[in-house]
Every structure is written in C-alpha cells, then in structure tokens.
Design goal:
Layout: H1 31-52, H2 54-79, H3 87-117, H4 120-124, H5 130-160, H6 168-196, H7 201-215, H8 230-242, H9 251-282
Helix pairs in contact: 1-2, 1-5, 2-5, 3-5, 3-6, 3-7, 3-8, 6-8, 6-9
C-alpha cells in the first residue's frame, strides 16, 4: 500500500490538495464588519416585520394620529382662538414625545421581547458580544422609527397649519440628546425585566410620566431641567419655533443638556449590567 501523505512538511494531505496551515481558512471578518452585518440584518428584520404585520402597524400609527387630532380639536374648543398661539408648542411636544417613547421602547423592548421569544440567551452568546447586539439593534430600531416620526411631524404640521424651522445642524443633535436619557431609562427597565420578567405596566406608567415632563413649565420650575427630556424639549421648542441655532444657546443650556443626556444613559447602562449579572448568576437569563 502506497502512503500518499507527504512528509516533507508541505502540509498536503492524502488528496494532495490541502493548502498550508496559514491558508487553510479564509480570513474571518473583522469586528466592525460583523457589527455592520448585524446592523443591516436588524434593519431588514424591522422592515420585514412591518410589512408582514402591516395591518397592525397601520392601525397603531392611526391611533397616534387620532390622539393628535383629539388634542388639536379639543384644545381649540376649550381654549378658543388663543389655543392657536400654543399650537407650535403642541407640535414640538408631540414630536419630542415620540422621540422619547421610541428611545425608551427600543432599549427596553429588545430585552423583553427577546426574553419572551426565548432567544435572549442566544444573543448573549453572539460572537460580537451582547453589547454590540444591543447597540446595533437599538440604533437600527431608532433609524427605522425615525421615518415614522417624520411622517407624524408632517401630519401634525398639516392639520395645525404651523410652520417650524427645521435646521438639521440644530435639530439632529438636540434630538439625539433628547433620546439619550430615555435610552438609559429603557436599559434600566430592560435590566430589571431580566430578573422580574414581566414589566409591561412600565410602558403605561412611562407614558404618563413623559407627558408630564414635556408639559412642565420650565420657567417656573428651573430645577426640573435635571429630569430627562425637559431641557431638550425646551431647546427644541426654541429652535423649531423661534429659529434659534444650536450655537446661539447659552453655554449653561448646553452643559445641562449634555450632562442630563450622558448621565442618564450611563446610569441606565450601569443598572442594566447589574441586573444582567444577577440574571446570569441565578441562571435565569434564558427563562421567562
């Protein structure tokens, strides 16, 4: 019997076709490539889910639009002609409400939904790391939801007859920092949900709290600027109604805005890691 395996160190096998050891496997994708693939996959998933359950999606959007119509019609009947002077603030508040609600739902929803579906533990074992999976999913969800928010904003302007100044260099940074605190709050709620499992009532409570934060009079109670979205809502209102540019705001406004946005985000991430570690120690990460 002839031995076809060569012993000259060439690395060829019995078929004589095996490449050297350093060429046996193709180069594995880098981390950034894997995260990008994950990000685009999540975007495709969001689009597919929206199309597949289109009726539910349209009814949900219709419900939010009817709420806006009710606010406008009810306000005009109760306050009369003077309500017209407040419509600009109503539209901005409506816009900020959806930004904050989307940020909160994106951060907390990924954890609770994946836990219900029984796939959370698989995400934690992802080769790119659970943090990358969570980050890519939240960003993709926010980008997809931003299209819906723009539609709501255009509809609000249409039925109210208002005209707003939308300068991307001003509005985009303010929107990002308006969403950041609620990403942190959503992460904290998602972390708690890893342990207690059921927190659907938190969304209902969050809605009432958010409405109160947007409606609070900042001029009368300056201390509330330390709460999520209050400072961002005030600055967005001045930017979109009065045309104030980002660099025209006082320095103290920027300090409060950045401190609140980054502070709540980091605090929420810390709470999430705390409860994630507890769920791992208890062995309940994959349970629901």
């Amino acid at each position: 019997m002839t031995d076809d395996t060569r012993g000259d160190g060439s690395g060829e096998g019995f078929l004589g076709t095996a490449p050297p050891a350093d060429e046996a496997r193709p180069d594995t994708p880098g981390r950034l490539t894997l995260v990008w693939r994950l990000f685009t996959s999540v975007l495709r998933k969001e689009a597919t889910t929206t199309i597949r359950y289109g009726t539910n999606f349209l009814l949900g959007q219709l419900g939010f639009l009817l709420v806006l119509v009710g606010i406008v019609v009810g306000g005009r009947r109760v306050a009369g002609p003077s309500f017209g002077d407040q419509l600009g603030g109503v539209v901005v508040g409506y816009f900020v409400f959806f930004v904050a609600q989307t940020a909160f739902g994106a951060a907390s929803g990924i954890v609770t939904k994946e836990a219900q579906w029984g796939t959370l533990e698989r995400l934690y074992l992802s080769p790119v790391g659970f943090g990358s999976v969570l980050g890519a999913t939240v960003v993709a969800d926010l980008l997809w939801s931003s299209l819906q928010i723009l539609v709501h904003l255009l509809f609000a302007l249409l039925i109210t007859g208002q005209t707003l100044v939308i300068d991307p260099l001003t509005v985009v940074p303010l929107v990002v920092l308006a969403a950041a605190p609620f990403l942190g709050v959503g992460l904290a709620v998602g972390g708690v949900a890893l342990v207690v499992k059921r927190l659907e009532s938190a969304m209902t409570l969050f809605t009432f709290v958010l409405v109160g934060l947007i409606a609070v009079p900042v001029e009368q109670f300056p201390v509330v600027r330390a709460l999520p979205v209050v400072q961002a809502n005030d600055m967005l209102g001045r930017a979109m109604r009065e045309g104030v540019r980002l660099w025209e705001f006082p320095l103290v406004d920027h300090v409060i805005l950045i401190t609140v946005g980054v502070g709540y985000l980091l605090a929420g991430a810390a709470v999430f890691r705390l409860f994630l570690g507890r769920a791992r120690r208890d062995g309940t990460l994959g349970d629901y």
